[in-house]
Amino acid sequence: MRYRKLDTDGDYVFGSGKHDFLKDSPEAVGQAVLTRLKLWLAEWFADTSAGTGWTQAILGRQSENLYEMTLRQRILETPGVLSIDEFFSNLDPNTRRLAVTATIETIYGSYALSSGELRV
What pLDDT shows up at residue 55? Predict the structure, then answer.
């Protein structure tokens, strides 16, 4: 598995040749998970069935079970993910922010996802 690295703003990294890529590592799978979670359903013109159902199953007046199940399913369907070892979410209705933290087991080892990486 090979993914181009992203900087702290979520932009592609260029200029360092092969060092601009994550390859066969937990970080590569973690970036794939984060990229999949950030893609909204129908956002990608080439495949409008791809994406996370943020407006359909997560945002608004959804039950905690529904949005957690949606996020877990999206994570587990990412190539390279074997399992979710830990999963925590906290929805603050006053600020309307969803904090998500997870530890996933990948084909290359463990990776910790944090809501600092996932901004909704």
Answer: 81
